[in-house]
Amino acid sequence: MPSQDKIHIYQLNGGSYKLLRTVISCTIVISGILYVILSTLAIKKYQKQISNVFLNTKKINLNWGYYLIIGMLAIWIAVIIKVEIIIFALVVLFVVSAAYFGISKVGILNPTLLEKDREGYLSADDDVEYQKYQKNFAGDETIQRVYKNLDSWMNDQKLYKNPEINLVSIAKLLDVHPNVLSQTINSIENKNFYDYINWYRIEEFKRIILLPENQKFTILTVAFECGFNSKTSFNRNFKKYTGCSPREFLKDHKLIS
Fold this sequence. Notes:
This protein is mainly alpha-helical. It has 13 helices and no strands. 70% of the residues lie in helices and 0% in strands.
């Protein structure tokens, strides 16, 4: 604009541009809040996804993601209250923290769930294949065949006792695609993989804890023997499937007072 026009707008305290600036400021604030909310939901969704595939989720710690989200929220609060020194300080702290987590958690942001060859995770190619299989039903005959084979392995080899077992590793044993195995469990047992394995573990616990020779062991020792790797997971799943705590179960069978 010519200088005179600029002076005129300045004298009018911004004129029509005042509304535009207000809209932009509001949009910036809303975008920050929306980003924090969507980021939190994304992590929660991912946690739910991995719980359907992996049993040992205790080792998959996503707290660092929440820390970064809290950092974003703090920055946006500072933006809203317009304290520049705090904004700059928080941004510097956030960048340093992001760099630290990026180095210490190297590989964690890979879009694949796991590295197939190293830990039994799905590779990038397998993940694409997995999405394609999700749209296709394996068929009743295949489902029945896979379930019969799975049931044999579970009862004869007691695969559930391995705390590191996951959907992909069992699919490899059965020589089927992980999605076919997931469909099989969902169709026949009406459970996801996580619930299916833990149901076996609870049933095994109930069986062996009642044996006279095992009554000298603690509840947690027997739980670990059945494949659980944490007290919290065991207690939560035991109550889920039996409606009572392990101690209440033992009291009902007069094994403890």
